[in-house]
Amino acid sequence: MLQSSAPFIYRTRGIYMFLALVASIIIKALSRGTTPMTLFVLGLVLIFIVQAFRMYSASFLWGRQAVRSPEAEFLCTSGPYAYVRNPLYLGNLLIGIGVCLTISEWYAYLLFLGSFALVYAVVIPYEEGFLTQKFGNAYTAYAAATGRLLPSRTPYLSPTPIRADFRAGILGEIHAPVILGVLEIVVYRLFAA
């Protein structure tokens, strides 16, 4: 059932985790909870570092990562992609955990990780099917040498290294720090103690 919805889930993949985090904020606001400043700052630091990593990763895709359907002009196996096939999705996971730290409630982790697992259980195989079809044995060899979400210990040696376009990577990701900033201002105003 979910696989037949893969194109729709792929197009809307970013919204589900965001809604899970917003729901967590609403639940916490209704219960009038607080977040210790230490956890808030720790979560904020994690979010900042991982967003920088996402911008770096996006630079190797030349800022073409926010697509509505799988597409690829080239098989990116350079930079962080030499270690992990989905550094942007790994970044989403870690940023979400950072936001959960700032919310500091068990249900925030449950809602976020549940939405992440459901979405990427569909999105990643859907994307991998496209890449296998487009790049064949080159993608199969790359996938065998790298982790899906957990980085491998040794880098994949790219036969055609990709040069990063840092400007495109930053511009392609600029919406994310703005949204995260607004979200964290709300969390700080409501809960930071």
Cα-to-Cα separation, first versus last residue: 44 Å
How large, in whole angstroms, is the Cα Rg?
17 Å
Query: Can you count the helices?
Result: 8
**What is the arithmetic mean of pLDDT?**
92
Helix content: 55-70%
Please identify the structural class as seen in this structure: mainly alpha
**Highest CATH level, the class:** Mainly Alpha
Largest sheet: none
Q: Per CATH, what is the topology?
A: Four Helix Bundle (Hemerythrin (Met), subunit A)
Number of distinct beta strands: 0
List the helices and strands and how they pair.
Blueprint: H1 6-11, H2 13-31, H3 37-59, H4 87-103, H5 106-135, H6 137-145, H7 166-173, H8 175-191
Helix pairs in contact: 2-4, 2-5, 2-8, 3-4, 3-7, 3-8, 4-5, 5-6
